[in-house]
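Need tokens for this chain, all 103 residues.
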Amino acid sequence: MPRKTTVPSQSIKVTPLALSQLHIRLKFLEKEHQSLLKQIKRKRTELKNFVEQIRSFGTEFLNKATPGFRKISCFSIILSHLTALIFSRLSADKSDNFIACIS
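Here are the structure tokens for all 103 residues:
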């Protein structure tokens, strides 16, 4: 029996020089990858600049606030000494009259 030969259908045409869908998709992904790398680099730079600004702001804030903190600390020490003095007079006099001890 002779072999039957099949005729390829007209709907399937393959041209060897045309880019396949895979190649097209690969090129698109490569472009997108490069774009994402550029964006990552830009965002890293922005983050470094932001961190540097925060550091300089913190340093400036600390330098401006230190005198105020020192005053508060001095007032706290003075207040604790006065409180201790008042209580020592109260216990030394053994008096129930607080006003008499202060004068």
